Amino acid sequence: MRYRKWREQALKDGDVRKAYEDVDDDPFIEVAHQMLRLRKKAGWTQKQLALAIGTSQQAIARLESLDYRGHSLTTLEKIAEAFHKKLRVQFV
Known about the structure:
434 Repressor (Amino-terminal Domain), globular
């Protein structure tokens, strides 16, 4: 709840709002956020997810990094499967 209040206050600043909206349009950041949310909701560590998809904990950390731009569809499919989800790619 504290984060929501802080974000609400921060977004009143025009520069902060613009930066937030720019990040919101970045598909790589969105993928990282979705991965993190799925993993946390499942109660898994990065190492547990890595074991489930046959990679290293370091690779999962890299995939969850907001700066990473090398996601492969094959890896994202494995992650979706590990969490019993479907992977959807859209052009909008």
